[in-house]
Amino acid sequence: MTDASSVHQVYIALGSNMGERERQLMEAIHSIHQWENTNVIRISDIYETDPVGYMDQPQFLNMVIYVQTEMSPLVLLHRLLQLELQMGRERGEQSERFGPRTIDLDILLYDNVITDEQQLTLPHPRMMERAFVLIPLYAIMAHPHELYQQVSVLTAAAQRSGKEGVKLWKTTNWHKELELLEN
């Protein structure tokens, strides 16, 4: 990435509750990091969480990553959806809404963009309601975000603490995880 004006600050939520959950999270992060003009800067710790909505399924592993990219919001969304499909995510009428999934990738914040389009709503419309998003998001916010100040995220996270079965599962080190995946 060369021109700082074309670099966008993005927070992405990741979740998995099928198969080798941790491995799938790390593979998704590694794939994103390999995309041209995209760098994963920071990753949160991993949290094990109870399912929300459809309850008859295994617990999730959830985390948030901070990424710098030159992709537009819609291009990034389509790349994330493509990655989900490559990793075995099933979508469509036969899959349960909020049901089990190999990988789930959601754009939470993209710079200070506010949009409500058919394909993409930013900021993510339900992020302030979900402790499994707020707790890791707060932990890695590089600086106060214009739309969601760290204090607002912390307050919302504290209000939901313990209410969704969010438990620290594993601490992470992005550079160590990257080395393991590349070897």
From TrEMBL:
One of its GO terms (molecular function) is 2-amino-4-hydroxy-6-hydroxymethyldihydropteridine diphosphokinase activity. InterPro entries: Hppk (IPR000550), Hppk_sf (IPR035907). It is an enzyme of class 2 (transferase). Residues 97-108 form the 7,8-dihydro-6-hydroxymethylpterin-pyrophosphokinase domain. Keywords: ATP-binding, Folate biosynthesis, Kinase, Nucleotide-binding, Transferase. It comes from Paenibacillus yanchengensis. Transmembrane segments: none annotated. It catalyses: 6-hydroxymethyl-7,8-dihydropterin + ATP = (7,8-dihydropterin-6-yl)methyl diphosphate + AMP + H(+). The keyword Nucleotide-binding applies. CDD domains: HPPK. Its EC number is 2.7.6.3. This is 2-amino-4-hydroxy-6-hydroxymethyldihydropteridine diphosphokinase. Pathway: Cofactor biosynthesis; tetrahydrofolate biosynthesis; 2-amino-4-hydroxy-6-hydroxymethyl-7,8-dihydropteridine diphosphate from 7,8-dihydroneopterin triphosphate: step 4/4. It comes from the Bacteria.
